[in-house]
Amino acid sequence: MSYSSDEESRQAKTIAAENNSQIIKSFEQDEESCVAVEEVNVKELDKVYRRLDYRIIPALWCLYFLTSFGSSAYGLTLTMNKEVGHSLTQSLKLSSHHTATASALYYVGYILFDVPMNLVMTKVHPQTWLSRIVITVGFVYACYSVLHNAGGLIAARFISGLVGAGTWPGMSYYISLWYPNDRSTRRIGYYFTAAQISAAVAGLVSAGFQKMDGMRGYMGWQWMYLVYGTVTVCVGISLLWWLPDRPFAKPSESTNKFKQFYFTFFKSPHPLSGTQRELHRKDLEHRYKLLKWTWKDVSLIITDLRIWPIIIMYFGVVGTGFGLAVFGSTIIAVNNPRLSSIQVSLLYAPIWLFDLGGILILTPFADKYKRFRAAIFSGACLIIMTGMFVTTFAHGSWNKYAGLLIAGFGLGPTVPICMSWSAEIFQPRYGDVGTAVSAALVSGLGNLGSVTATYALYSGWPADVPRLFKYSNMMLVVMLGVSIIASGVCHLIRNKVRQ
What we know:
Main location: membrane
Number of strands: 0
Radius of gyration: 27 Å
Shape: globular
CATH class: Mainly Alpha
InterPro entries: MFS, MFS_dom, MFS_trans_sf
Distance between the termini: 68 Å
Membrane topology: Multi-pass membrane protein
Oligomer: single chain
Number of helices: 19
Organism: Spathaspora passalidarum (strain NRRL Y-27907 / 11-Y1)
GO cellular component, one term: plasma membrane
């Protein structure tokens, strides 16, 4: 009896062990299957976003190239054909006060209208609004060719800022509609390269336009603005078909015949197939939960403490960036007075090619290692500061020029990091309006750095010219130091406020 009982017990244990082994194998197979499915989904998603890249990034790149070109062109026209008295400064009899005021008012336009423009974009078809920006920017810059006095320039610069307001935050908002945050910094970096290349191209192109000085009674700077404005308007119109609408936009149900005609005629085909669209929708479901907003939401974002460190971060880097964009050619000319205006324009271009290199090398790390965005941002700022020290204290004009190249490399990843970080922090809690308003606040208020660099420093500080802009350069270094501190504060409080 006992033997039989022991035998049955052993058999029961053997059966149980076999069952457990089968369960474990089944679990492992299921786990392997889930991993395989996840890998397939990741690969398919990579294909989806590559397809979106081919359609969206070139369009945004062209958009930003053309809207950025105007700032670089303006800085160059201040010195074009100065040997024969035909620069913009000489033609309009501009004083340093005039140029400083004009530059400052340009950024005031951005500061005042960035938030309202981006709020409008949340309520309309975004590609239509971005196209409107490009068209109006081109039209206004074409009108620069008929300027005759300092007052006209000051007014034109303010209007340029007004019509261009919402460009940079609008593109950041548009990217958030199509890409998740862990894929956005690199994309922002991709089209941000347009600003650097446009600055480089502006330097090269201005050399050619200086050769056209006097043709048909127009000076070189007039030809430059006229051609640039015309091309920009044409490309702005093409963006109506080129850029797609929101990913999951519903067909217009308006009974207004004009609206029906407009959105039928300017309808942009969706870049994804049906299967890809569904996979994309599942990946972005979290993005489309909070689409409606009220003015209370806007006030909550403005009073959220986390926005202010990012604004300060942006303040320092964009102030340095635009300071070099507008007055880079002036710094080169002051450091080496023997250069001709054409040589200055050609030397201006490589600064922004180094900036492009910084974007391509460093922004992928900001996406991959999101936890270390503050460290990556701070490292880039230290590179800029090193460049500013070299261009200020190095001996020899070419050594000083090398400092500008170093500073350009460091500038590359800083602005994309600011914009993607604001979306990462504010989109989960506030939704659609969180992305739009945070981007506009960072861009708008952060542009006070541009006002500081262009109005208070460089041409706004005549006593600094004999010092080869030593104090202006060092003020930018101080601003960058404050940006580094702000990035550390943002890292510490990003998950500790209003969660």
